[in-house]
Amino acid sequence: MAVYTPLAAEDLAALIDAYDVGALVSAKGIAEGVSNSNWLVETAGADGAGARFILTMYERRIDLGELPFFLGLLDYLSARGCPVPRTIHDRDGNASRDLAGKTVALIEFLPGISVDRPTAAQARSVGAALAGVHLAARDFPLSRANALGIAASHAALARCGAASLEGIAAGLSEAITRAAALRDRWPETLPRSVCHTDLFPDNVLMRGERVAGMIDFYFACNEAMAYDLAVTHAAWSFARDGSAFHADVGRALVEGYESVRPLTAPERRALPLLAEGACLRFVASRAEDWLEGPPGALVERKDPMAFMRRLHFYAGAGEDPFHA
Amino acid sequence: MAVYTPLAAEDLAALIDAYDVGALVSAKGIAEGVSNSNWLVETAGADGAGARFILTMYERRIDLGELPFFLGLLDYLSARGCPVPRTIHDRDGNASRDLAGKTVALIEFLPGISVDRPTAAQARSVGAALAGVHLAARDFPLSRANALGIAASHAALARCGAASLEGIAAGLSEAITRAAALRDRWPETLPRSVCHTDLFPDNVLMRGERVAGMIDFYFACNEAMAYDLAVTHAAWSFARDGSAFHADVGRALVEGYESVRPLTAPERRALPLLAEGACLRFVASRAEDWLEGPPGALVERKDPMAFMRRLHFYAGAGEDPFHA
Asked: Is a pLDDT exceeding 80 seen at residue A32?
């Protein structure tokens, strides 16, 4: 949560004038995003009826050369009916601009709330919306490799080292051997599309039980679609600390997904293994962040063990956690 | 800038249901406020046409026993035509409620932007709006003493100590003797009302040259009205670091004020001294914050010298900085 770059209202007003959205009316820095600064911006609207946008300033972690992929994907999905915010282009057609030495993009604001305790009905909607993205994105002309796949997760965990991992929490170093084993068994022939790969509840805006918006595509990449479903399953179906699996939510998610795009038999078989890999992806990034974070920093440290618990659940699940 | 308390959407939705404002539609934590957390909240509206609010959660620094003063003042001023947000009362008439163990208030959202480089025309509007508040608030039935008057500022600076102040910046310890001298000469018979006492540009929402909102009344207290004008003059008429006085802005501010409420002769005479006192109030609080702030904290430290420079300007001004 942050606004890393102070922005003078006068400079913001001048930026907004480069778009056909009417004059700036209000702007509030919002406490979201760890790799960028965000403002909720209100303008008079092109038609004078008022309009709202998210202005995103890219601060770090994002390779600006990848912005055309991320921003183009939003437009591509939005044009195909997915609940995804459009990128607003300036009068010259640019999807991004420079402001205060940084790159910014103006993105459609979608109302909705990010739930903390998803219901099965909400998970069913999310599954269906995710499948819709997968189908819509299959012919998206740009591509991006997954920088956080199982091999990368294994390498990151190995760099952390067993001793450091045990220093974070007893038992965490097991992630290294788990990742190595999964890497050697990883299925490489499952059907692919552009995947979100980070569809946690805070990246979904709900209106009741309906998905009103899917946001924050900055980890999107070409991946196995069933892996994206496994990530989403791990993100939606557990208590935050991974201590409890909510079977109704997890099964509704897959049911919703299959109502739009039925899984193939190999995908179904691969789901438990893909879910373990998804858990290790978050264990790895959380462990790295934990060890790299400066002491005393006010950034919330996310517990890697919350995803080790999920991994143990998937590895040991007696009943099928994906299907009723 | 912060949201100190995570808030589950489900708990927020339940809170909103206690008000007659329609169901929760969206909520964004906003990066404003140092002593409270704030969310920009959208609801369906009592009439279904949509409505926006600021939800404030009081975290620290504020004595909850004083909330009836602060929230009642907003309603009192708003009812008298001042551009001040109303407090929304719940269905039982309460101006504040408890949520997640904290006290919260739902406050009208006013659109507008906080300028960084005020123009003379904007300062004139702010002066007029401030005078409007002073006239409207004269009969406000509650009262609150100024906890940050000249005696308190002197005591705070003395507690910091000359050595620590010099450690922040060479020349800063002069603030102690300046404050002692001002305290002994402080005028006690100037006309009073409820004063904002912290009306920096970020506490004013502008629509072009018009004041659309005055916010953050959490330092409001019964004070000499001319002191409030002096605070506002020091806050609006200088470069942020105090290095340059913008004469046109400073004079337009006072002109706008006097267009609504002409100053008395004693007030006019007292303005330079009151402005020096206003500067010392901010020198004192900034010095205390500087010395108290934990090392490495991510909170921006505001430079006390920015107000020592203003003080020197007021103490040595050849021309009248308040009137043309």
From this structure: no
